Input
Amino acid sequence: MTHRSISFSFSLALLMVVALAGVHGVAAQDATPATPATPVGGSKFIAMGYQALNITVTDAAVLTTPRATAGLTLLTLKNNGPNTTNVTLISPKSGESIGDTLKQLATPVPNTDFPEIGYDIPLSGGPGALPGQVTEAIVNLNEGEYAFVTNGQQHPAILEVLAAETTSPPAPTPDLTVAMTEYSFEGLPDTISAGDHIIQFTNTGTQPHYAEIYQVPAGETTEQLSEQLHALYTGTPMAGATPSGGEQSFTSVGLTGVLSPGNMFWIPFNLPAGTYAMVCLVPDKSSGVPHAGLGMVQVFTVA
Output
């Protein structure tokens, strides 16, 4: 597992995007809608009647339609870029515009790639995908301005949400509910059955959180991995021997967008049998240590 935290890092080119975008979306995105994306194995959610919003991430930009209506919305992410990516739906603080927020996100922050404003703005989560993968998430949209940002250098996509003309279908019924807090994943079982699941993620803490899932060697325990990550991120020597396999044995298999306190979203979930770890790498607001280094890690088995 490499030392990598979730990033809202944008290049100077982002400032040009913000200047061109105004509050109604980027003209280039109007002309170039996202490539229609079909989730691998089909969608559990399309038949439920949710508004559908397709998102494509390339190595340069996030592409989607510029407008949607309020209500529960199915986000389908197609990752055409070369790297694993997540998409987080952000909105501005009260009294500010999405342009103001994007300018602040583009301002360099010393010694971190998670800007200070990331702790203070509404983050509604979203899907994440490996290169070439198609994934889904259900998020709730309220009227207003939003932007889709990634953990890479891609230009964001600006989204205007209009009033809904019809009633949104009810929220999906999860079979797993995971509450993210400082510093744990509450409700995540030690063993999960193989097959399809719907996870409802909620943030019951005071800081932003997200979930990234790694495949880890069989026999790895939460205690071992927690100690290893604490040593890695804080520089504190481990009390015992380093777990067998080393960092190269940890393989990322999926991740979500970032969620701010009080929000929730839903994702479909299907992993082959094996041993996995769920971690959060958002840096702690006070210490800067990734949350996984402070105990926000849990090993679980799919059987």
